[in-house]
Each structure stands twice: as C-alpha cells, then as structure tokens.
Amino acid sequence: MNAERGFGKAQMYRDIALESIEKKRFDFAGFSAQQAVEFFLKGFLIELVGVRPYTHSLPELLAALNEAGIESPPDVKDCVKSLAEHYIQARYPDARVTEYDHEEAIEAIKCMEVTLDFLTKIHTESSKGK
C-alpha cells in the first residue's frame, strides 16, 4: 500500500460509514468509521516515515504517529480508543451481548470526524513544508 491508496481508502470508508447510518446498518457504520481512521493513519505514516506498523490497532498507529513527532490532543486519543473497539465488535456477532444502535453509530461517526479532521489538518500542514 502507498500513502495515496491509504488516503483513498480512508475516504471510501468514511463515505460508507455515513451511508450506513442512513441505511440503519449501525454495526457497519462503526466498523467503517474505524477503517477510515485506520487507513488514513497508515497512509500518513507511510508518507512521514516510509513504513507503517502491521497492525489494526488504532492506539498503536496513533502512538507511531506520536513517535514520528506529531502529538495528538486528548479528544483524538479518546476517540481513537473508542473507535478501536469497533474493529472486533462490529465484525463478529458474538463479540458483544447487545446489538449496535443509532446512538452508538452516531458516536463512532463523530469520533471518526474528530480524528480525521485533526489528521487532515496536520497532514495538510506537513505537506506544505515539503
């Protein structure tokens, strides 16, 4: 994967997350929100340092970004922790007791947007310096 492919997949999953809310596919909205952030982080890391960690863990990917010199604000760190849970819970029916609901999906979308807004801003700023 290269950086541009990561950014493209991030946008695709963002769109899918938003469409999934409209279609009441709340579990898929949560999973897609997680994927949007994962792919953006991986693309950004490839661009910054040339490689990305082989993990699906958003906290690990964010930590790698922090190690590359980009510190994340507390709201982004909190959102990344929240979104990380959707990677397993949304994919496996027996990974949780309750079904996803509208409020939970909306919260995942909000966290996706908070995180992507921060990452996009930092990415744009870092790209100007090149």
General description of the model:
The protein has a single domain (3-128), classed as Four Helix Bundle (Hemerythrin (Met), subunit A) (Up-down Bundle). The chain is globular and about 45 Å long. The mean pLDDT is 91. By secondary structure, the chain is mainly alpha-helical. It has helices at 3-22, 26-49, 58-67, 74-84, 86-89, 102-128. It starts with a helix and ends with a helix.
Topology:
Elements: H1 3-22, H2 26-49, H3 58-67, H4 74-84, H5 86-89, H6 102-128
Helix pairs in contact: 1-2, 1-6, 2-3, 2-6, 4-6
Task: State mean pLDDT (0 to 100 scale).
Answer: 91
Gross morphology is globular
Tally of separate domains: 1
Largest sheet: none
Q: In percent, how helical is the residue content?
A: over 70%
Output the CATH topology: Four Helix Bundle (Hemerythrin (Met), subunit A)
Fill in the keyword field for this structure:
130 residues, mainly alpha, Four Helix Bundle (Hemerythrin (Met), subunit A), 6 helices, 74% helix, 0% strand, globular
Short description:
The chain has 130 residues and is an all-alpha fold.
